[in-house]
Specification:
Layout: H1 15-22, H2 25-54, H3 61-98, H4 102-137, H5 145-155, H6 159-173, H7 178-202, H8 207-230, H9 247-320, H10 324-351, H11 353-358, H12 364-378, H13 384-396, H14 400-428, H15 433-463
Helix pairs in contact: 2-7, 2-8, 2-9, 3-4, 3-5, 3-6, 3-9, 4-5, 4-6, 4-9, 5-8, 6-7, 6-8, 7-8, 9-10, 9-12, 9-13, 9-14, 10-13, 12-15, 13-14, 13-15, 14-15
Length: 472
């Protein structure tokens, strides 16, 4: 049981605050970051498990998998809006808590809930009306569009559940309740794992069953989150008067949240370019392989991002309390651990690519076609541990502009142009245009991770001078 599960009833300060500022650093990092990393990995199961099951549907698995692949940019965009709110608001609330300003922290929480509800309605209506046209833009063909639309129509019914769960979970983590945050995603993922085979195979619903299982699971997670904030354990309380939008608070939330939003939203654009490129140069099989590459990349990347996000409350709280030496120590520990994990993940993919591909397809031909692309596509991920550590630290310190630049650098400035240019370059040189498409990812990863690390140590590190010792 978490030590901070019972905050004081007399004042809005619990042992969560004391632990963030005073507990031994390494055990504290692991107590917050590991559950968050596991939660991110488990959260992947909402869509990853769908692809695993759908890819093994007898007779139509490859086409159905390609259909789900072209819906994924829309799902990423929905997630991006939840991160705009949750990852923009939670660090602001955490810094306010570090200063002892719980009134502002709760105002941020209430305004975030309002934003999430409004965005859910707008996104559901917009994608329902224009979904078919968007899917064709994202690389759907006449063969894969029916599968994509069958999944998307049902998935959009649960947009509110997705937005609320993902947008509010960072507020749970930033109060020090990492295990409760992890339970939020674990509950939904377990439900999804259990319901998917029932609906997909047992009731013979195919991709519609996968979507139905997903939104029912997300509804369970949303109820769990609401129950937490209405209960007695939360340091921050949901209060009706805080739902009223306040311009200053909204600006603070959106200015910081725009960086993680761009990171996710540009992922949508990246997948659009990669899906259409794969369809152009390799057809439906290449689109199916691209769906697998995106899935494996997520499996590799999100746990590390989750680990760094779990450390963020320590950075935000201690930055607000002006304990800069503790902020520096937290960052360095996070940097070393995330780099080590990233290198280990890349090693596993390079040595055993067929095992990762086999998770998503039983088609031996498709697996063989995917081995070389997977090895190339994931190669640059070895450097992404450094970028994740720097990126999340920028967010924790409230450095919205720098964080936004780094987010734009990797996806918009580097990866998108490279994905458009390199296939043509490889073609002119007599090579495979598909190979040029795959190479764009590791080149972008290397340049952006190096730039992010240099900026952090050249700019931010110098600002975080250790506090002078009391003994002089």
């Amino acid at each position: 049981m978490e030590q901070n599960e019972t905050p004081s009833a007399k004042k809005p300060v619990g042992t969560a605050d004391q632990r963030l500022g005073t507990a031994p650093l390494l055990p504290l990092i692991f107590s917050l970051a590991l559950p968050t990393a596991l939660a991110q990995l488990v959260n992947l199961l909402y869509n990853i498990v769908d692809r695993v099951y759908v890819g093994h549907i007898p007779g139509s698995g490859s086409l159905a998998l390609a259909g789900l692949g072209v819906t994924y940019p829309i799902i990423v965009l929905i997630t991006a809006f939840s991160n705009l709110v949750g990852m923009g608001g939670a660090p602001r609330a955490s810094v306010a808590m570090g200063r002892g300003d719980y009134k502002t922290a709760e105002k941020v929480l209430g305004n975030c809930i309002t934003l999430l509800v409004v965005l859910s309605v707008v996104l559901s209506v917009g994608f329902t009306v224009f979904g078919e046209s968007i899917l064709m833009l994202f690389g759907a063909s006449e063969n894969t569009l029916p599968y994509a639309m069958s999944y998307l129509r049902i998935y959009l019914m649960g947009t509110l559940f997705v937005q609320f769960t993902m947008g509010m979970t960072p507020f749970i983590t930033n109060q020090g309740f990492a295990k409760t945050s992890m339970a939020t995603t674990c509950i939904g993922a377990i439900c999804n794992i259990a319901l998917d085979p029932v609906f997909i195979f047992g009731l013979n619903m195919g991709v519609r069953g996968a979507a139905l299982a997903t939104i029912l699971s997300q509804a369970v997670s949303a109820v769990w989150v609401l129950w937490f904030f209405l209960g007695k354990r939360s340091v921050l309380r949901i209060r009706k008067h805080n739902f009223l939008p306040e311009g200053r608070i909204m600006a603070l939330i959106l200015s910081l949240g725009v960086s993680p939003f761009i990171m996710n939203a540009t992922e949508c654009l990246v997948q659009l370019v990669f899906n259409t490129g794969a369809a152009k140069y390799g057809g439906d099989d290449a689109v199916a392989i691209m769906s697998i590459l995106f899935s494996v990349a997520q499996i590799a990347q999100l746990p590390i991002q989750g680990f760094c996000q779990g450390v963020q409350p320590i950075i935000s709280y201690n930055f607000g309390a002006r304990k800069f030496d503790r902020v520096r120590s937290t960052f360095m520990t996070t940097l070393k651990l995330s780099l080590g994990v990233a290198v280990a993940v890349v090693g596993a993919v390079e040595l055993f690519p067929h095992l990762f591909l086999g998770l998503f397809s039983s088609d031996a031909g498709l697996i063989q076609l995917g081995i070389a692309p997977l090895r190339i596509y994931l190669l640059g991920f070895a450097f992404m541990g450094a970028q994740s550590a720097c990126q999340q630290t920028f967010l924790g310190l409230g450095e919205a502009k720098i964080s936004m630049f780094i987010a734009l650098l990797r996806k918009v400035i580097l990866l998108l142009p490279l994905a458009l240019i390199l296939p043509g370059v490889f073609g002119l040189l007599g090579g495979s245009q598909l190979l040029g498409l795959y190479v764009a990812e590791p080149v972008s990863d290397l340049i952006s991770a190096s730039t992010c690390t240099i900026i952090f140590f050249a700019v931010e590190w110098k600002k975080l001078k250790p506090a002078p010792r009391a003994d002089g």
